[in-house]
Amino acid sequence: MGTTNTVRRPTAQRVRDTLERLGTERDLWVSTAHPEHGPHQVPLWFLWDGQAVWFCTGATSATVRNLRAESRVRLALPDSYDVVLVEGEAQCFTDREAPEAGARAFAAKFGWDPRAEGSPFVYVRVVPRTVRAWRGEPELRGRVVMRDGAWLG
């Protein structure tokens, strides 16, 4: 796939495009690390509520184990050409502790409510601190579109 025809978007346009993708896409890659067990990466469904990314996974998963030991997390939308990387701190909520609005919005988006399952789940909320977004080589410079929790441009 050639990227020579890629036109560099202004930062404000990349922010708009990133927010649109966060609001409409279904899947993301969640990357965590544990001091003793090392890195772990898994694809999960997610919800963007306008302020934070929410995802849900089994209470005994490696993702939850890692986040409880090290709350820093990197999230990536699954397109290697139209890249969006989100970094932030994760907050974990048991399915009983999850804020009702977040749990309801997650269930509405996916038609599945983890709180109704027989096994326990954990909801994870990540407020972005840094977001990088770029399409191809022309956008590598200036790819940071959020810094210290504030959108740029």
From TrEMBL:
Domain Pyridoxamine 5'-phosphate oxidase N-terminal: 27-134
The entry's keywords: Oxidoreductase
Database matches in SUPFAM superfamilies: FMN-binding split barrel
Pfam families: PNPOx_N
Record has Hydrolase as a keyword: no
Lineage top rank: taxon: Bacteria
One CC-aspect GO term: cytosol
InterPro entries the UniProt entry points to: F420H2_bilvrd_red/Heme_oxyg, Pyridox_Oxase_N, Split_barrel_FMN-bd
GO molecular function, one term: coenzyme F420 binding
Protein name: FMN-binding pyridoxamine 5'-phosphate oxidase-like protein
Species of origin: Streptomyces gancidicus BKS 13-15
